[in-house]
């Protein structure tokens, strides 16, 4: 928003995070974010604070951008942070304002929050709610913000719509499509999009299971069906599956909300989407065990990757870390290396051994496993790794490498959804 020309005051309750941001250092890894942060801080249009009173006084438009994690012991979304943000802000508003929800929430949440906003706001202060879901991909978040493929706004008044059209005027002038709708549809657009993407990923991974059983190659299958423009190639990459802080918890929360609405049968297929995704992790461990001769006890395994996807340090529900932990549980000596996610991974799994480099991870390894497709890993060659390892065994869980090239160099390679020769 500051880069688009607005004066912005950003609030968080974490003083350490605010101090870091104020000095130009983002508290997580996102390509290009620190450079953009430094750029806009220099303009004076962006400041950070831990004072909600200052925020209430400052803003004409208030974006609520807090998380909605999965509830402990339930598939449902935990809305405590969204409620707390609204409850702390609303009573302090003293002039007309628009409060805009960005969080991924169960359908019906915005209507409840709009009622609560009206109850908590001081008498005579004209405030209302809008819902404007985000569609950011980790690793591409800046481009997805400044050049989105669409804008979706859920509003209940022409005034709210006009305000958001003013906020996004520069994007709209660049012909970014905008969909103006009601609260419920705006909420559903986000979760429906995530459910569809998760389904597409799990579909090709289900085909990978069939290909392994039939001796077929899922990468060729995906290429062939992707030429059909009704299907397309995107998200047809078979492998270890999806993770992170969005798709897994969002499809589970979507199922939970459908149950509350009495239409749980409509989303029963998402249970299998989730199950297929988790099975890929188990299958990857199976491949390592097979290469080890049936037991992982005492086997040295190099795990290349800890983040759930490249260009991110996010390890929430990371398939890579799940596999690494499972290998250790079966008695393997596991060495994990990731270019950006080491600190987060070590906090989540402190008992794993974390290497300092690719060489440190693969040195003396019996099995090398590619678990996150960082460019650094994708550029590795058989000859580069051969002098370092103890045994030339490779599990390519992301279908990055050419199996023929590695086999020609004397490696035994296993890939999800491809024939094992």
Tell me what you see in this structure.
The chain has helices at residues 15-22, 33-43, 52-58, 80-89, 109-120, 141-146, 158-167, 169-173, 183-214, 218-226, 247-260, 269-291, 319-329, 342-348, 358-362, 375-378, 382-385, 403-408, and strands at residues 8-11, 46-49, 61-64, 97-101, 127-131, 151-154, 178-181, 300-304, 333-337, 353-354, 367-370, 393-396, 412-415. With 421 residues, the chain is of the alpha/beta class. The protein has three domains: 51-181, 3-Layer(aba) Sandwich (Rossmann fold), CATH 3.40.50; 190-273, N-(1-d-carboxylethyl)-l-norvaline Dehydrogenase, domain 2, CATH 1.10.1040; 281-415, NAD(P)-binding Rossmann-like Domain (Rossmann fold, 3-Layer(aba) Sandwich). The strands form four sheets. It has a six-stranded parallel β-sheet with strand order 10-9-8-11-12-13. A three-stranded parallel β-sheet has the order 3-4-5, with helices on both faces. A two-stranded parallel ribbon has the order 1-2. Helix 5 links the parallel strand 4 (97-101) and strand 5.
